[in-house]
Design a protein that fits this description.
heterodimer, A: about 230 residues, five-stranded parallel β-sheet, B: about 500 residues, Beta Polymerase, domain 2, Cytochrome-c3 Hydrogenase, chain B, 16 helices, globular
């Protein structure tokens, strides 16, 4: 018992002061929102792998979650339209308590792991009233990762149907948004929105936990103006 | 034909044996001192399928490669599984990928549910467009009080999908059958068709928690085939990233094990400490899983002196923290009572099943690619092997703890003394019609990539083997005679990859 208390004392409190204070600065090499310069057309954040040798320059900005698929296409001179809050009726239902069921549908486990990280003491997701639950029947929505493989399609749709209305759908990672690097495979889909309507798109390979948290807080309108 | 880790051989030089001779040689070698490391098919231009078996002689650090031709007319061979159980999943995979029947296989089921690669009639008469995993008879135990429990593919936590079917008598598990394939993305055919840049990204997303392991293996195949000499500094940085990946996963697993044993303090601390290592990878590579670091020819990111100092400073602190928290976990009687004697695999069984990596070492198998088949930086830095004695959950936890300390020691030694020079040397084109094998000790165990080059600068065939491919059968065996409530704990103690298996 004494050892438990001693370790507890040494560990201290490690929870981020975000969103009360600004987010911690991410390392210099972190590849966040791309910088578009002199490019024809646009860049689809839902398709790219955020790899360093793609010829794209990346900024340090982790904020990339959007509400509509077409908003992910970044064009020169235009700001990214970040995710907007749910409507008042939905906010009234989910604003204080949002239970989510996660479905991995062909994900490489990177997105899954960084979703899990939100439950660690650092991010402590439950302080925002958001929780991942075991059953779709207990859930208010689903969070999908992976390119939705042929073999997971039915299980995913069944899980979606089992969530009571009204429900929200969140696509995490390039694979779930567009099929990502697997979109050419006959085993993968071309994105979650080709199967069910999506309310929040969080791009990345995988998205940084801050990107995911930022998206969730925008959806629930819990982000103070100074860190928006 | 003999081969070393990272070695290559012209496809035409691989001796083709008669079917009977092929079978006898594999059995004789494996009943003596060898292990079946890989066994897969490759479609020849003639329309025949060449079966390639790679045997590992762990003590001599050498690999042996045997092959035989299967004509599409007969499309079968005598199954090895009854005499050599470690061949079981390889043979099911061959049956599924090439519609070749391993005659006499005791449990011939599809592995990943997809249509075969040569457009022949499926040997199960499955229609790929309709069949889904799980829609297939499971092994059933009969008896008055026997009951069946099915779990998955969608599990309770944030984890990948798979189906587990338990045959139980009361609380006791008589048999567990694991049916995977839900994560199948078709990586191998994608790799064979793609350009190298794309294949590189595919290898990084084969299993995201092992991005460094798989991407290193891919790079080593391309580098060997193009005769590229990778600078020592790049090899050192790859080794550093590989150990950071091992640290993150081992630390996270110890936290999860504590959680499943009902001891919450350590699960919170370890969960956060896992993030510390991922953040070091983020600082180094710009990605928390190390995606984007390894490229054929070297690495894209260097470690300068201030970064090496910063890493050393932090790692020393992390080492202290780990010592504290792991002492707390391993001195807790209630935790030890849950860990000890649960999910035991005897050394004999581990060898029969051909377990690899951490799960094998927990059962006292001396298998570690960094030692047995050392390549790259591991030829110059010796990491002592961490062995468990009891083969149970406790041993698998203890091996993780030991390896955390050894990885930390390695990092603290290598970071201040990185070899000088460049971190990248541009590779030339790959030699055509060659076969190359590369092995990496990922945090779960032995990763093997085999590339067969074509005349167009790409791959005619690319075979990936994640350690999980061997070890899932180990988890099923470990559950025999255990209580069903032990499953989460045992599962966590193996923590195998679904997507690495399903590809």
């Amino acid at each position: 018992m004494l050892n438990i208390l001693k370790t507890r004392f040494k560990q201290g409190c490690k929870t981020l002061s975000f969103p009360k204070a600004p987010a911690p600065k991410l390392p210099l090499r972190y590849r966040g929102r791309p910088v578009i310069a002199g490019q024809e057309g646009g860049m689809d954040l839902g398709k790219i792998s955020f790899n360093p040798d793609s010829g794209t320059a990346y900024s340090n900005d982790y904020r990339m979650a959007v509400s509509q698929r077409e908003d992910l296409v970044l064009t020169q001179g235009n700001e990214l339209v970040l995710a907007r809050a749910l409507n008042d009726k939905m906010l009234k239902i989910f604003g204080r308590s949002l239970k989510l069921r996660q479905v991995s549908a062909g994900g490489c486990n990177a997105c899954e792991l960084d979703l899990n990280v939100l439950n660690t003491p650092v991010f402590d997701l439950s302080r925002f009233g958001i929780q991942f639950v075991a059953s779709p029947r207990h859930a208010d929505g689903i969070v999908v990762t992976g390119p939705i493989t042929r073999n997971m399609r039915e299980a995913l749709l069944k899980t979606y149907e089992a969530v009571p209305e009204p429900k929200i759908v969140i696509a995490v990672g390039g694979c779930a948004i567009s099929g990502g690097i697997f979109s050419d495979s006959p085993q993968a889909s071309k994105g979650l929105n080709t199967l069910i309507p999506v309310d929040l798109y969080i791009p990345g390979c995988p998205p940084h936990p801050m990107t995911i948290l930022d998206g969730l807080l925008r959806l629930l309108d819990k982000l103070p103006a100074r860190v928006r | 034909m003999e081969l070393f880790n990272g070695g290559q051989i012209p496809l035409s030089k691989i001796s083709t044996l008669g079917l009977e001779e092929f079978r006898t040689q594999i059995l004789n070698r494996c009943h003596a001192d060898a292990r079946l490391v890989n066994f897969f098919g490759h479609l020849e231009p003639s329309g025949q399928v060449r079966l390639l078996a790679i045997l590992g002689l762990d003590e001599e650090a050498s690999l042996e490669i045997l092959s035989t031709m299967i004509s599409p007319a007969s499309a079968q061979f005598g199954s090895l599984t009854n005499d050599l159980p470690q061949a079981h999943l390889f043979e099911r995979e061959i049956a599924e990928q090439w519609a070749i029947l391993p005659q006499g296989h005791p449990w011939l089921k599809p592995v990943r549910y997809h249509s075969n690669y040569r457009g022949a009639v499926d040997i199960w008469k499955n229609i790929a467009a309709k069949t889904i995993p799980g829609e297939y008879p499971f092994y059933a135990v009969e008896g008055e009080e026997v009951h069946e429990v099915g779990v998955g593919p969608v599990h309770a936590g944030i984890i990948e999908p798979g189906h587990f079917r338990f045959q139980c008598h009361g609380e006791e598990i008589l048999h567990l059958e694991i049916q995977l394939g839900y994560q199948h993305r078709g990586i191998e055919p994608l790799m064979a068709g793609a350009n190298l840049k794309r294949s590189m990204l595919l290898s990084e997303s084969t299993a995201g928690d092992t991005a460094i392991g798989h991407s290193t293996a891919f790079c080593e195949v391309v580098e060997s085939l193009s005769g590229c000499a990778v600078p020592a500094r790049a090899q050192a940085i790859r080794a550093i990233a590989l150990e950071l990946e091992r640290l993150a996963n081992h630390v996270g697993d110890l936290g999860a094990l504590g959680m499943d044993a009902g001891f919450l303090p350590t699960s919170g601390y370890f969960g956060r400490m896992r993030g510390d290592y991922l953040n070091l990878l983020l600082t180094l590579t710009g990605n928390r899983f190390g995606k984007g670091l390894c490229r054929p020819g070297g690495v894209l990111f260097d470690i300068d002196a201030p970064m090496a100092d910063e890493f050393c400073y932090k790692l020393k602190k992390y080492k202290e923290e780990f010592q504290d928290v792991s002492d707390l976990l391993f001195s807790r009687p209630s935790v030890l009572a849950r860990f000890e004697g649960v999910g035991t695999i005897a050394l004999k069984d581990a060898k029969i099943l051909g377990l690899v990596g951490l799960a094998g070492r927990a059962s006292q198998m001396e298998c570690d690619v960094r030692i047995n088949y050392s390549s790259g930086m591991w030829q110059f830095h010796h990491v002592p092997i961490s062995l468990g004695a009891s083969g149970d959950v406790y041993a698998r936890a203890l091996v993780r703890r030991q390896e955390v300390f050894r990885s930390l020691e390695f990092l603290l030694k290598i970071l201040p003394s990185l070899p000088a020079g460049d971190v990248f040397a541009r590779p030339g084109p790959m030699r055509p019609d060659m076969l190359c094998v590369s092995m990496v000790e990922g945090w779960r165990g032995e990763i093997m990539h085999v590339g067969i080059s074509d005349a167009n600068g790409g791959f005619a065939r690319y075979k990936i083997k994640d350690p999980s491919f061997h070890n899932w059968a180990g988890l099923a065996l470990a559950m025999r005679g255990q209580e069903i409530s032990d499953f989460p704990l045992c599962n966590k103690s193996f923590n195998l990859s679904y997507c690495g298996h399903d590809l």
